[in-house]
Amino acid sequence: MPSFTPQALRALVTLIVGRMGSSAEETEEVADHLVRANLSGHDSHGVGMLPAYIRLLQDGLLVPNQTPHTVLDAGALLVIDARRGFGQRMTADAVHRAIGRARDLGACVLALRNASHIGRIGTYGELAAQAGCAFTAFVNVADGRDVQAPWACAEPRLGTNPFCTAVPGPDGPSLLLDMATTTIAAGKARVAYNKGVPVPDDCLIDDAGQPTNDPTGFIRDRTGAMLPFGRHKGSGLAVMCEIMAGAIGGGQRVDQPVQGGILNSMLATVIDLSRLGDPAAMAEHIEATIAHIRTSRVAPGFDEVLLPGEPERRAARERAEAGISVDATTWHDIREAAARLGITEAEIDHAVGVN
Questions:
Q1: What's 1-58+323-355's CATH class?
Q2: By CB atoms within 10 Å of each CB, which of 4, 155, 228, 264 scores lowest?
C-alpha cells in the first residue's frame, strides 16, 4: 500500500484537477479540501474521489470554473445555485459569503443548491468556527442512485445525507460533529471493498433486505443499501436532511429524475457568536462543559473519553508525520482515470516524487 506526504498528494490533485480545466484558484481549493479529508482520517472523501470527479466531468455532470447564481439575497437569507460547479469551491465561496453576512447582521441562513460533490462537510464547519461563528448544516445527496434504506425500508430511498455542526474554540473549532446519517459513509464502503475487507455489523443490507458485512454487492453490483445509524433516530435525521436541503432549500431532490451525477444541496445556519455575548466567556462555558464530560470514569472497552472532532485532529497530526496511505485499488483507479485526461504515468510519478 503506497504512502504519501500531504504535499505529494496535493501535487497529485493539483495536476489532475488542473488538467480537468479548473483555474489555479479552484484547483488549490479542491486540492486542499481533498488532502485535508485524508489527513483527518476520512479517506472516503479524500483523493479517492478523483476517479468519480473525472467521470462526472466527462459525462458533463461537473462544471469547472462555474459561476454560481444568486437566486435570493435578502439580508439574512442567501440562496445560491452552484449549477453543478466544483463542490469544494462553490461551497467554500458560499460559506464565506454567509460568514460575511453573519458579521453584518448577526446570523445568516444559507441555501446552497446543486453543487457537484461538496466533499467533507466538516471543512465548512471549520471555516465558520475559525471565523468565530457557530455552524449547522443539513445536506442531501441527489442525482444518482439512492443508497440509504430508511427505517423499515428493505431498499434504498435516500442518500447518505450528512449533518454537521461546529462551534469555535481558542484555536479553530472547539467541537465539530460531522457525520453521514448512514452508519458509515458510502466512501468507507468503497474503501473497504478496495481493501478486500468486510464492513462492520449493521452497516449494509443485501438486495433481499438482509444484513451483510460484504460490500461487494453494494459497491460492485450496485445492489442492496446502507443502513441509518441509530436505527429509527438516524433515519429520522436522514429524512430531515433531505427535506431541509432539498424541499426547503430548493436543491435537487431524491424523488426527481437522475442523470447519474453527485449533487449536494445544503441548508446551513451561520451565527456570529460575538452578537450573543462575550466570546471569551462563551469559550469558557464550552470548555467547562467539555471538562465536565471528561471527568467521567472511562467505560469498559474504551481507553479515553473523546469529544466530537478530536479523532480527526489526532489523525491529522499522526498522518502529517507518518504519511497518508492509499490502498492499491484506489491508487490504480486514480492513475487509470488520470490517463483518460491524457496524464501520463511519468507525470503522476513526478507529481508525487516517485523516481
A1: mainly alpha
A2: 155
